[in-house]
């Protein structure tokens, strides 16, 4: 038998004792069984619901999208820009970058290596000498260590190659003293013509006599008066080389202090604390010091180094004089990606020609390089960009281009709409 309770039902999902519907009758009501009601939301459902409420990118139905031609063009252009910037950033990430720092140079007692390759198209190899000196008083006169000379013709082609030796062949013991002529056998001991440092010193060649004179601070006025030079044909060999040039290259090592090195004709020596070149043996009124610097560097080469004098040339049109280069050397340390350290130098330069007629003191013909060192040291360090830095830059590129292109698109779109409305009502001129 159905009771009045059977004629009343609970609304599904309604709280208990809140609302019920009577089907009929006047009897008491009873609730819907527990199994027919929805379960309460779980903690995870409540958490996901809260996360949905934090969505800063609300979605719009595609039916409400409005696509325009200008938007397509801007999208294409921004995509190309993104791609180019991404490729650039990727290359930077895959290759090492160089970081530059400046600090005071505190090094002491180091040597400075000077590498050079200079061509003199109008000076013979036999008359060019290389000297170096610094402010500490140290001098290297007529340097021949690690120096090479090449005779070249008027067209710049190599005639012969030779390496200068250090000194000449000297006899260990004098076998026979002879101060006169050279018609004797090869066991004789040639005279030094008063320039010998000891009684048993021999000068068997013209070069030995000139070197002995140089040490004494004397000049050789006429080589034909010296039997050794006359036998070797010293002056004749110079005349035979007329019209030739010389390419001189190599390196010298000097103290790491201010100084100079120069290429000049004649034997050099000190006389009354004055640096002198003996030009008398060459019997010439002028010397053409036109030159081309094929290479000049201070220290070892490293990636990215620029030597401003490489390839520089100068042609002498007036009377002979002194061509001067004033160089500021900057100590440099380069550390590559494998942590290999290269100690080198960079330099800047200015130049000046001092004519033989300028001033009261006659300028010595030659090419002079005056150098000074900077107290600041430059350090280059190669390093890779970290992946986090690369990722940050890529995000900045994508986000920046996307934002800017969106601003441009919005400006163009609203501008077009405003113009279109004005045209429709006839207010656009």
Give an account of the 3D structure:
The chain is of the alpha+beta class. It folds into three domains: 4-53, no CATH class; 65-95 and 388-424; 102-165 and 246-383, no CATH class. The chain is 23% helix and 31% strand. Strands 3, 5, 6, 12, 17, 18, 19 and 20 form an eight-stranded mixed sheet that branches. Strands 8-7-11-4-15-16 form a six-stranded antiparallel sheet, with no helix packed on it. Strand 13 (267-271) and strand 14 form a beta hairpin. Helix 2 runs antiparallel to helix 6 (387-424). It is elongated and about 140 Å long. Residues 1-22 and 163-185 have low confidence and may be disordered.
How many separate domains? 3
Order of helices and strands: EEHHEEEEEEEEHHHEEEEEEEEEEH
Structural class: alpha+beta
- General shape: elongated
User: What is the strand content?
Assistant: 25-35%
Helix count?
6
| Terminal residue distance | 88 Å
Whole-number mean pLDDT: 79
User: Which stretches are low in confidence, meaning pLDDT under 50 for 5 or more residues running?
Assistant: 1-22, 163-185
State the helical fraction: 10-25%
Instruction: Describe the main β-sheet briefly.
Output: 8 strands, mixed
Measured on Cα atoms, how large is the radius of gyration?
46 Å
Total beta strands? 20
Domain Endoplasmic reticulum vesicle transporter C-terminal: 192-409
Region (Disordered): 1-42
Organism: Eragrostis curvula (weeping love grass)
Transmembrane segments: 69-87, 387-413
């Amino acid at each position: 038998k159905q009771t009045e309770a059977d004629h009343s039902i609970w609304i599904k999902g309604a709280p208990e004792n809140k609302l019920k519907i009577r089907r009929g009758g006047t009897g008491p009501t009873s609730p819907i069984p527990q199994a027919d009601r929805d379960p309460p939301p779980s903690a995870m459902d409540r958490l996901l619901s809260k996360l949905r409420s934090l969505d800063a990118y609300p979605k719009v139905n595609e039916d409400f999208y409005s696509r325009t031609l200008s938007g397509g063009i801007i999208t294409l252009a921004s995509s190309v820009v993104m791609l180019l910037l991404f490729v650039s950033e990727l290359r930077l990430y895959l290759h090492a970058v160089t970081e530059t720092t400046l600090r005071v140079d505190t090094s002491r007692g180091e040597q400075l290596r000077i590498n050079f390759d200079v061509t003199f198209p109008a000076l013979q190899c036999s008359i060019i000498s290389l000297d170096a000196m610094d402010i500490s008083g140290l001098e290297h006169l007529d340097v021949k260590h690690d120096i090479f000379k090449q005779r070249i013709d008027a067209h710049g082609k190599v005639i012969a190659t030779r390496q200068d030796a250090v000194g000449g062949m000297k006899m260990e013991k004098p076998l026979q003293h002879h101060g006169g002529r050279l018609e004797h056998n090869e066991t004789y001991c040639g005279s030094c013509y008063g320039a010998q440092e000891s009684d048993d010193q021999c000068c068997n060649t013209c070069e030995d006599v000139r070197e002995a004179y140089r040490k004494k601070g004397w000049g050789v006025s006429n080589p034909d008066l010296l039997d050794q030079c006359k036998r070797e044909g010293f002056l004749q060999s110079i005349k035979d080389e007329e019209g030739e040039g010389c390419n001189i290259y190599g390196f010298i090592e000097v103290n790491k202090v201010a100084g100079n090195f120069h290429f000049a004709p004649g034997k050099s020596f000190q006389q009354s604390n004055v640096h002198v070149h003996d030009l008398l043996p060459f019997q010439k009124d002028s010397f053409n010091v036109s030159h081309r610097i094929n290479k000049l560097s201070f220290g070892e080469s490293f990636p990215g180094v620029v030597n401003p004098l490489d390839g520089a040339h100068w042609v002498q049109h007036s009377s002979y004089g002194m061509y001067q280069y004033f160089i500021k050397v900057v100590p440099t340390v380069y550390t590559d990606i494998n942590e290999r350290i290269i100690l080198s130098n960079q330099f800047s330069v200015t130049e000046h020609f001092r004519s033989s007629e300028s001033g009261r003191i006659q300028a010595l013909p030659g090419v002079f390089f005056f150098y000074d060192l900077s107290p600041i040291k430059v350090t280059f360090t190669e390093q890779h960009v970290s992946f986090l830095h690369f990722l940050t830059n890529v995000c900045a590129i994508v986000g920046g281009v996307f934002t800017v292109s969106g601003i441009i698109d919005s400006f163009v779109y609203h501008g077009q709409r405003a113009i279109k409305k004005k045209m429709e009502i006839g207010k656009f001129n």
